[in-house]
Specification:
Elements: H1 6-17, H2 27-49, H3 63-80, H4 85-99
Length: 107
């Protein structure tokens, strides 16, 4: 599978979404969707590593699928607010590299 940049991912999702009359949910609905996806990731992690195992009849999607769902929701939120995730990422990495240089034990 061909790797894509964040910008390419954002554009692909935006192109897909714009085929609809209302391409993105309203802000509170987007937030609820993102929160729901985080909860589903948490449920899978808990099933994998935590004390609360799934019931026999409970269908838990794999972590990879849930993280994909979460990424999709995050990109939709960024697109709807005209936020460039590559720029956001670069700003965040600059911040943590400066702030956390001596914060954690290194190898």
């Amino acid at each position: 599978m061909e790797e894509k940049t964040l910008n390419e991912i954002q554009k692909e999702i935006d192109d897909w979404a714009k085929q609809f009359k209302k391409p993105y949910f309203e802000p509170l609905s987007r937030m609820a969707s993102l929160t729901e996806e985080v909860g589903e990731v948490a449920r899978v992690i808990n099933d994998m590593y935590g004390d609360k195992k799934r019931k026999n009849n409970e269908n838990i999607k794999c972590l990879e699928e849930e993280l994909g769902d979460l990424l999709f929701s995050l990109v939709c939120m960024a697109n709807a607010e005209d936020i460039d995730l590559t720029s956001s990422y670069e700003k965040k990495m600059a911040k943590v590299k400066k702030r956390d240089t001596n914060r954690f034990e290194k190898k």
